[in-house]
């Protein structure tokens, strides 16, 4: 699965959290950072791209800032030329594929066809989307996405 995400997207972090039990069961997700939602998006995306452990940043990055709502609490860093090129390429890929918002997940369905879903999938959709047995998603904050 590929998941386009903006670090300031209010639904990207819950999507990441909802997929964690599935990743623990073997799902491979390639998180593709883009930057368009807020001025700090590029610096946060650069921090993810340049981190030795971006999963740790996501795991501990839930924001408590009311203005950021559920965006990822990552300190933005200065955007290097290399990070800017990756972020721009990710954004171009997303646009070229016809996607306009985050999260957007791209996956193969049971027949092997590629399917894109823009927006956070519901918890009840995940087993079918992922072609995996349902995994327990116990985070109380995610229950509103049943």
What does this structure look like?
By secondary structure, this protein is of the alpha+beta class. The protein has a single domain (2-145), classed as 3-Layer(aba) Sandwich (Glutaredoxin), CATH 3.40.30.10. The protein has helices at residues 12-24, 41-50, 54-59, 81-96, 126-130, and strands at residues 2-5, 30-33, 104-108, 114-118. The chain has a four-stranded mixed beta sheet with strand order 2-1-3-4. It starts with a strand and ends in a 16-residue tail after the last helix.
Number of domains: 1
**Sheet with the most strands: spatial strand order:** 2-1-3-4
Distance between the termini: 20 Å
The CATH first-level class comes to Alpha Beta
Low-pLDDT regions: 63-70
Helical amount among residues, as a percent range?
Answer: 25-40%
CATH architecture: 3-Layer(aba) Sandwich
Largest sheet: 4 strands, mixed
The CATH topology annotation reads as Glutaredoxin
Strand content: 5-15%
Q: Give the mean pLDDT.
A: 89
What is the H/E order?
A: EHEHHHEEH
């Amino acid at each position: 699965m590929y998941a386009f995400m903006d670090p300031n997207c209010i639904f990207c972090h819950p999507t990441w959290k909802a997929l964690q039990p599935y990743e623990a069961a073997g799902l491979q997700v390639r998180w593709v950072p883009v930057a368009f939602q807020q001025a700090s998006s590029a610096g946060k995306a650069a921090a993810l791209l340049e981190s030795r452990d971006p999963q740790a940043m996501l795991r501990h990055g839930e924001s408590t800032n009311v203005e950021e709502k559920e965006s990822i609490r990552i300190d933005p860093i200065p955007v290097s030329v290399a990070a800017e090129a990756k972020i721009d390429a990710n954004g171009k890929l997303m646009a070229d594929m016809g996607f306009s918002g985050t999260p957007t997940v791209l996956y193969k369905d049971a027949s092997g066809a590629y399917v894109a879903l823009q927006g956070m999938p519901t918890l009840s959709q995940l087993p079918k989307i992922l072609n995996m047995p349902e995994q327990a998603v116990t985070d109380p904050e995610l229950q509103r996405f049943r």
